[in-house]
Design goal:
Elements: E1 3-4, E2 33-40, H1 49-65, H2 76-84, E3 88-94, H3 97-103, E4 108-111, E5 116-119, E6 123-124, H4 130-133, E7 157-160, H5 168-185, H6 188-196, E8 202-205, H7 211-215, E9 221-223, E10 235-240
Parallel strand pairs: 2-3, 7-8
Antiparallel strand pairs: 1-3, 2-5, 2-6, 4-5, 7-10, 9-10
């Protein structure tokens, strides 16, 4: 897993000085914040990779929609500061006592089929709480014991670039970026419907033959800044929400 200061770009037209533009801008001079996510990985029972990716994406949505993150909520200022600068997400791993200490900090735990991911309000890039800062970013790989079933196209699908190799942590952060871009593109009513349904979504590798069309079809596209693992400007995820299909 890797520290993931990636920069997804909304499609089809980036907004000037967007937090997701690849080029340097004024947002790089703002105080930088990061959204921490911690995935529980016990030695004896690590979660399947796809379940971890989907749970991380839902965790980002749950944080964005939480009443504490909006208006005058207790996390709202941190959320605004985070979104005024670069949109960074970092995934770390925990087990045993590490996980119990992470659960004691303010945040939200989201569960998948077997995966557990805890998301925390944004923190300064150089100001992580001690119990999160000591957690490992790298060193763990996740696999799917069985190939994932086909995606339910009646619900949102986060299509991953089939030609890119990414660590589990990198891919979890990218899935979170994709979910966030879809959330921003939706109307208030569409957001409410997604939230009330429990944020159903799937994460799947795209068919290589379909990938070029997905990236140019007007759906939100995540592009990586190239700080870790992959080349700058790489398209990593397309956020295919039914309400955004043209």
């Amino acid at each position: 897993m890797s520290n993931d200061p990636t920069t997804p770009v909304p499609a089809p037209v980036p907004v000037p000085d967007s937090p997701f533009r690849a080029e340097p801008g004024d947002r790089d001079f703002a105080p930088q914040f990061v959204l921490p996510l911690v995935v529980r990985i016990e030695r004896a029972a690590p979660p399947p990779r796809t379940d971890a990716l989907e749970t991380a994406a839902r965790a980002v949505l749950v944080m964005l929609a939480d009443e504490r993150s909006t208006g005058d909520g207790e996390w709202a200022r941190a959320m605004r500061d985070w979104q005024d600068a670069r949109i960074r997400k970092v995934v770390r791993r925990a087990r045993g006592a590490e996980w119990r200490r992470a659960e004691a900090l303010p945040g939200i735990t989201v569960t998948g089929k077997t995966a557990e991911v805890r998301v925390f309000p944004p923190v300064p890039l150089d100001g992580w709480p001690k119990d999160l800062a000591r957690l490992q970013v790298s060193g763990t790989d996740l696999d799917d014991p069985e190939p994932p079933v086909g995606a339910d196209l009646s619900a949102p699908v986060l299509w991953m670039n089939p030609d890119l190799e990414m660590s589990a942590g990198k891919a979890m952060a990218q899935a979170g970026h994709g979910a966030q871009l879809a959330w921003w593109e939706l109307s208030d009513d569409e957001r409410a419907a997604w939230r009330e349904a429990g944020f159903p979504l799937s994460v799947r590798a795209a068919d290589p033959a379909r990938w070029p069309g997905l990236t140019t079809g007007g759906l939100p596209v995540v592009r990586d800044a190239g700080f870790t693992e992959i080349a700058p400007g790489s398209c990593t995820v397309v956020a295919d929400h039914p309400a955004l299909r043209r």
